[in-house]
Amino acid sequence: MAEGVGEQARPDGRREFLAANLERVRERIRRAAASAGRADEPELIVVTKFHPASDVRILAGLGVRSVGENRDQEASEKAAELADLPLAWHFIGQLQTNKAKSVARYAAAVHSVDRAGLVSALSKAMVQAEREDSLDCLVQVNLALGAAPGRGGAVPEEVPALADAIAQAPGLRLAGLMAVAPLGEDPAAAFARLAQAAGTLRQAHPGASMLSAGMSQDLEEAVAAGATHLRIGTDVLGRRRTVR
Ligand SMILES: *Cc1c(COP(=O)(O)O)cnc(C)c1O
């Protein structure tokens, strides 16, 4: 873990704490992109779950434009409180269909689309919300070896049908794939399978170019595997009070 992360800084030192962590993470991303020989630089989504709206406001002042949240109630409250800021809200957690209507009010993207029922619910909610833009949807892939269909993402065999459903759904845009590296396996190996699935997806849907992978512990491996969007919480904000 980066130096400084997890320190309980004085309230008036919070900006300096976040600025230093953010710069360290940005430097790690630049280095990882350079050593992977990438000309582009992946986009940083700062995961602000469990941290107060005041932190998100500081981060926006430091140039952060994309934030990630995993619970609808917390995300919708923060988005409302910070509506004056130019932020894109990325929903990255398990999503119940009955929360689709709420998420459609504030989210720019949902990274955790893992079943057909959620595609229909989000599409219906977007049509009702009468937004001018569409909602970027990523299929969350369960990278665990031998994973059974169920929680935590679609198994790789389910991805093509789910992608087609998103591509055809009014109000939604098929943006790409998202995954979390499974515990107990080298993340590079898991992200290699994700990159392969992303290549297959792009053959059928050339516009689906987002690859959301990489957290505080494995951002380098994700960048090497071609991640376009990184979801970093702990190494920017410090430890969360509640462990999930
Ligand atoms: C919390 C979370 C992250 C951020 O993880 P850190 O280890 O704190 O960087 C990324 N992705 C998802 C899906 C998360 O729930």
From TrEMBL:
Lineage top rank: taxon: Bacteria
SUPFAM superfamilies with a match to the protein in the record: PLP-binding barrel
Positions of post-translational N6-(pyridoxal phosphate)lysine modification: 49
Keywords, sorted A to Z: Pyridoxal phosphate
Limits of the Alanine racemase N-terminal domain: 21-238
NCBIfam families for this protein: YggS family pyridoxal phosphate-dependent enzyme
HAMAP family associated with the record: PLP_homeostasis (MF_02087)
Official protein name in the record: Pyridoxal phosphate homeostasis protein
